[in-house]
Design brief:
The chain has 174 residues and is of the alpha+beta class. The chain is 17% helix and 33% strand. It contains 3 helices and 8 strands; from the N terminus they run E-E-H-E-E-E-H-E-E-H-E. The strands form 2 sheets. A 5-stranded antiparallel sheet has the order 2-1-5-6-7, covered by helices on one side. Strands 4-3-8 form a 3-stranded mixed sheet, with helices on one face. The two termini are 27 Å apart.
Length: 174
């Protein structure tokens, strides 16, 4: 059963606190190259990577605002095949509350609207054991279905040993 890893954002995050989101996210600092941005994987999950470890799968643009927060981003999206157990991730204490393994087929069913909820496995930062959870669309950071469905299709290609055709989604296409 192939799974995709999500993170549960820390309750102290200014956007989407406690929501499920992509496993690693971050911002490029001024003067930083794309290759240098993979530091986010180590900061958030304890994965020491280089750009060569990653498969580019797409690009998305965001543009939204709420409660005085304006968020305009160009996001490069990558995949990584990583077979380590959830307990092996070293979660950033201020950013990541937990990691969650979700069956890819179940995630696709959730984002296509075929089901209202799916089972998953969560391992919280500092916990000795993981536990089962139920995920609904409302639990996931605020983007539509097109982005996760495009990413999941690309992940399936990566798992088959193929190089996926990268997707590109504008801010209005999420």
């Amino acid at each position: 059963m192939p799974t995709v890893i999500y993170q549960r954002r820390s309750l102290t995050k200014d956007t989407w606190p406690g929501a499920l989101d992509v496993a690693v996210g971050g911002h490029i600092r001024a003067g930083e190259s794309l290759a240098e941005t993979v530091r986010e994987a180590e900061e958030e999950l304890g994965l020491a990577l280089t750009l060569d470890n990653l498969t580019p799968i797409g690009r998305r643009f965001t543009d939204w605002s709420a409660d005085g927060v304006i968020d305009r981003e160009a996001q490069e999206v990558f995949a990584l095949r990583c077979d380590q157990p959830l307990a092996a991730y070293r979660l950033h204490p201020e950013e990541v509350a937990a990691v969650i393994a979700i069956d890819i087929a179940a995630a696709e069913s959730l984002f296509t609207g075929h089901v209202d909820a799916i089972p998953a496995w969560e391992h919280a930062r500092g916990a000795a054991e993981g536990h089962p959870i139920t995920i609904r669309r409302a639990d996931i950071a605020g983007y539509g279905a097109r982005y996760p469905l495009a990413a999941l299709a690309a992940l399936r290609a990566v798992l088959r040993g193929e190089t996926p055709e990268p997707f590109e989604l504008g801010a209005s296409e999420q």
